[in-house]
Amino acid sequence: MEINIKEPLSTLQWVDRSIVKPNDYNPNKVSKQNLELLTQSILTNGWTLPIVVRPDYTIIDGFHRWTVAGQEPLLSKLDGKVPVVVVRHDDKAGDIYGTVTHNRARGTHLLEPMKAIVKELMGEGKTVEEIGKQLGMRPEEIFRLSDFSKDDFLKMMVKGRENYSNAEFITKI
Q: Pick from 4, 23, 144, 164: CA 20 to 30 A from residue 123's CA?
């Protein structure tokens, strides 16, 4: 059977989140920090990826998007709805293949390109706080990816503040 690869997007619809349900086989787990980052991404970029569901509204891909859509602030901003596209497979194996391949196809971030991204953002004057919020990184992660000395990095973290940060205070002891 040949698949019409354009068909799922023709089914795009906003539905009540309550009719969508998780599958019972998804091997993917996400940390609380990454769920917060997902929420931030939706708040910053809007909802860019629909949830992929079977005709009975069981999730094939998008469980974590569905999860954060059920929590504030997204729940009220979305009026309890989520965007879905419907995919029809011949059997449950097709659904499982869809779940796993969606998860695995997302890839991982490489060190050198992430260093270049952090360097570019800092070069544009973005603060450590803003980079951390938008990319889901702690200050120490940003420091490790930057080419700044510890002292220069700490100065950037406290720039515009009258008091020492905890990090700067500790280094002065």
A: 164
